[in-house]
Amino acid sequence: MIEYTSRSGEYYGKAHLQRIYDDHMEICLNPHVPFCYEMDKSPCYDTSGGSWLCPEKVVLEPAGTGSREFKTWGHAGRCAHGAVHFCTSVRKWRYTEPAPFYGKYTGKDWARYFISKRPEPERPGEFTYKCDEFTLYSETEFNRLVKSCTEKSLTVSTGTHSSFGDTVWTGNSSRKKNGKGQKPMYICPFWVFLP
Question: Pfam families from the entry (predicted)?
């Protein structure tokens, strides 16, 4: 099992390390229950699930142990209802991709919202802020959200990282653009620390 954190801050606390080769690894970020079996007196795994990575082989940090569910063939062999599920303690490893876009902000300790800032057609010069979880109908509402989070001791950091330039919105709603005179980006991740 591996705690994998991507450069953009996505955190996968129970990713599955499928295989390690001489020059790269196979990692499933959102695995289903891995199927385990023995081949040539060595344990092997067959995992299905979401996103797969094949990063270069790197040094992994030990991260203790954790519980992992596996399955294998039961007494009935390869037939309906022939699998047995079991939990066991396994080693945990940790890897964070280098040069993170957002510094310390990751999905491990922070909730992230991708907020899209769109021009409001009925009110020239104003914007609507949308994400999957909520919609804010003005910059005043957005600033109120940021202020509310900071008053409740929820640290807030927002920002973008793209070819359009970096925009960072902090708890006091100040804006900082890179020196290239570009407009602020319209999509930004919004991180809220959840204690």
Answer: DUF4121
70 and 22 within one domain: yes
* Total domain count, the chain: 2
- Give me the domain span that covers residue 62: 2-96
DSSP secondary-structure letter at 132? S
Distance CA 112, CA 96 (A): 18
CA distance linking residue 166 with residue 168, whole number of Å: 7
Q: Is residue 105 part of a domain?
A: no
Q: What is the mean pLDDT of each run of 10 residues along the chain (195 residues)?
A: 91 91 92 89 87 88 94 70 86 93 79 76 84 82 74 50 33 33 40 48
Q: For residue 180, what are the contacts with CB-CB under 8 A and spacing of at least 6?
A: 165
Neighbours of 194 (CB within 10 A): 9
- Tokens found for residue 65: 């142990």
Nearest CA among 172, 170, 175, 195 for reference residue 185: 175
Q: Are residues 116 and 91 in the same domain?
A: no
**In angstroms, rounded to a whole number, what is the distance separating the alpha carbons of residues 32 and 16?**
9
